[in-house]
Amino acid sequence: MLAQGRPPIAQDAVIAFMEGKSDRVLDLKLDWAALQAAARERVGREISLRKAVERLVDSGHLHRLQAGRYAFTSDSARSARLMDLDPVAEAILRRLEIPYYLSWHSALWYHGLVDQQSRRVYVAVDRRKREAKVGSGVVQFVFISGKDKFFGGEEVTDLEWPVNIARPEKAIIDGFDRPRYASSVPVVAEALRRGVAEGIVDPARLVDDALRFDSPHLNRRLGFFMDLFDLPGTEELALRTGRGPAIPLDARRRYAKGERPPASRRWQVLEDPGIVGTALELK
Q1: What b/e string do you get for 180-191 counting C-beta neighbours within 10 Å, with b at 16 or more?
Q2: Are residues 52 and 96 in the same domain?
Q3: pLDDT tens-digit series, residues 45-64
Q4: Whose CA is closest to 280, among 160, 169, 189, 152?
Q5: Residues paired with residue 46 on neighbouring β-strands, in sequence order
Q6: Whether pTM exceeds 0.85
Q7: b/e string for 212-240 if b means 16 or more Cβ within 10 A?
Q8: Do 70 and 131 share a domain, yes or no?
């Protein structure tokens, strides 16, 4: 970040030029003449801009995409829900030629349901794609197989650029389905509780999306936490929990012999005291 107060004249001129660009990408080859002209008009004389560009890279306002090309983040953009990564994500997502939407931790953050931003942007896609690294940021593409699970993304326009982001209900479902992309199961559970309490998450729509997702194991985990927080609408989920033994609340968890927690009779999930206790502590 730049120091508090007005930035140096040359950096201020670059910032003003970038804030007026619709694509927020600085290409030194294509934009250099226009940048020099805009700076000269702004300050009334010729100024050196090369060092200003370097300083803005150091401060985090410009993110190097490739040699001579940079994505820009203004102070106003840093207040948006995608924070420092939004120009990086823009530069990558605008060039995607496949369906996508942000979900998991990224969508929960955008909707105000988690408090800590991640240096990764998690993007659901319907075909496999390698992650993209720019500086310290990463755009991670998560393959979702099947149209019955690839849904719930909506275009939002209150950021610096239009982007497809999962509805809060779908972000929670994706989080319970693959918690490793949403921090942890207790964090997703707290997002669920907070979302309903603050009117961000509609329980009826959440259940409808869960039934459409068509995963008995997801229904068990979601229903358990809805009951834990006394949230309405679990009746339909309880009818779609499938058969088989009790499952962990966290799909990644494996228990050694003798460590298996007791099972919830209604939801057939293992009530791990560490997961449940942490979820309750986050309230």
Answers
A1: ebbbbbbbbbbb
A2: no
A3: 888 898 889 888 877 778 77
A4: 189
A5: none
A6: no
A7: ebebebbbbbbbbbbebbebebbeebeeb
A8: no
